[in-house]
Amino acid sequence: MDIQILRQAAGWGTPAYVFDLDAFALRIRHMKEILGQDIKIIYAMKANPFFTRTAAQEADGLEVCSPGEYAICQRAGVPPEKIVLSGVNKEAAHIREVVGGVGSCGAAVGNPGPAAGSPGPDTYTAESLSQLALLESCAAQAQGSPLRVLLRLTSGNQFGMDEETILSVIQRRNAYPHLHFTGLQYYSGTQKKQSGKIHKELERLDALLARIRDELQHEIRELEYGPGFHIPYFEGESPVDEDAMLANFRAALDAMAFKGSISLEAGRFLAAPCGSYVTRVVDTKQNQGQDYCIVDGGINHVNYYGQAMAMKIPAIRHLPQSISQGMPADHIPGENTQWTVCGSLCTSGDMLVKNLPLSGLRTGDMLVFDRIGAYAVTEGIYLFLSRGLPAVLTYERETGLKLVRGALPTSPINDGSIQYFEDYIKKENS
User: Fold this and answer.
1) Is 335 exposed, middle or buried (0-12, 13-18, 19+ CB in 10 A)?
2) What distances in angstroms separate CA 222 from CA 186, 238, 255, 262, 263, one per listed residue?
3) Pairing outcome for strands 337-342 and 351-358
4) Domains, in order of start, for the chain
5) Whole-angstrom distance, CA of residue 405 vs CA of residue 387
6) How far apart are CA 71 and CA 136, in angstroms?
7) What is the DSSP letter of 290?
8) pLDDT greater than 70 at residue 182
9) How many CB atoms lie within 10 A of CB 225?
10) What region does 57 belong to: left with phi over 0, alpha with psi -120 to 50, or beta?
11) EC number(s) on record (predicted)?
């Protein structure tokens, strides 16, 4: 993201996330150009819900895994035919609401849900026999068309069902007259560096689809697959030729005997390169020969997959201030100083980077963490020390920067006084 845009974003205060909606839209379009328009792109919105509106415009669908995510989609006006309602915990009250189109659909405190009678999602996943029973019961009560269901195949963890259970369900499909088993869903994890693992997974899925067709005389028409493409985050990692990787993946899809509809579930791969985090240096010091800088953010905001105790250096930029701001530094380092970057939390674990080589770092300068568009905005330990939530800004060339969420205090959430929290909510909604 352009430095001037980031400097302008910092004018709203730091720390702050900046998400590039144009870059996100272009990644979806480019994926479709390489893979072909017949491959559907499904955005896993858990990666970053702030891309929801753009995903609804550019992607073929959104993977939604909670009542809260569903409420975000409703407020964003995401068409029901673009929603795949997934999740390992499908809450009965929520499923009854969305299947029947009668409720608030899990709206968050202070936010309106969808209007009563609004249609529910186009497609549901089933992760267990109990979820199938729930979907069947709700569909029967709604007395509408059969629900489109994707049966999730496990990869050997708590998600989905094993092959034998899925085969048994399809064999007993007449027991679910209000469900239409249209497809399979499979996702085994993220950050896969070797294409061979993806090829083996596609071969396994191809064999299972053929078995369902030949042994059970049931044609599976859809496959939703999450390949977990690799995103390089840290210094020293080999760059990824994304075009070649996608072309190789398309060749693997073409080699399958299955010729039904294929959807590619992607979250991290789409969102990660499209966000930056801006934080300001508030102090510098030297302890026992080690140079430290303290920033106004911390590990409660910065989270990279595979980062362990700041032992790796992520994509990071130094934005010096023309005039130093704040208190003067009590330590003036030399050139090319090896900095340990720490956040504002009162824990020795709040280290963002060790031995970061920077020249001329001063209090008031800013550090920009790039490739942070996926997960960091939701996975941080935000309530620790009752520090505030960072501001969130989005950027589009046509409209420029837009503040979509100002910095928010977390102390009302951590306060033991129920009345204080209720008064705070009323004030915010007034």
Assistant:
1) exposed
2) 11, 34, 16, 6, 8
3) antiparallel
4) 21-270 (3.20.20.10), 273-414 (2.40.37.10)
5) 16
6) 23
7) E
8) yes
9) 23
10) alpha
11) 5.1.1.1
DSSP track, 310-345? T-S-BSEEEE--SS--SSPPS----TTEEEEEE-SS
Distance CA 188, CA 191 (A): 10
Are 278 and 302 in contact by the 8 Å Cβ rule? The answer is no
Backbone phi, then psi, for 9, in 5-degree steps?
A: -65, -35
Q: Residue 108 gets which letter from DSSP?
A: P
The answer to whether residues 297 and 343 touch, using CB atoms and an 8 Å cutoff, is yes
Lowest mean pLDDT among 45-59, 184-198, 329-343: 329-343
What distance in Å separates the CA atoms of residue 297 and residue 320, rounded to the nearest whole number? Answer: 17
pLDDT value, residue 430: 66
C-alpha distances in angstroms, 253 versus 314, 335, 383? Answer: 33, 52, 44
Evaluate whether 407 touches 389 at the Cβ level (below 8 Å): yes
- In DSSP terms, which residues pair with 393 in a beta bridge? 18, 403
Q: What are 18-55's pLDDT values in tens digits?
A: 999 999 999 999 999 999 999 999 999 999 999 999 99
Summarize pLDDT for 109-157 with one digit per residue, the tens.
Answer: 333 444 445 678 989 999 999 999 999 999 999 988 899 999 999 999 9
Indicate the residue type of 34.
I
Among 317, 314, 316, smallest CA distance to 237 is for 314
- What the block records as the tokens of 150 is 């994707």
Percentage of the chain modeled with pLDDT above 70:
90
Write out the DSSP string of 216-229. Answer: H-----EEEEE--B
| Residue 319 identity | L
DSSP secondary structure string for all residues of 145-182: SPEEEEEEEPSSSSSSB-HHHHHHHHHTGGG-TTEEEE
Residue 213's SS3 state is helix
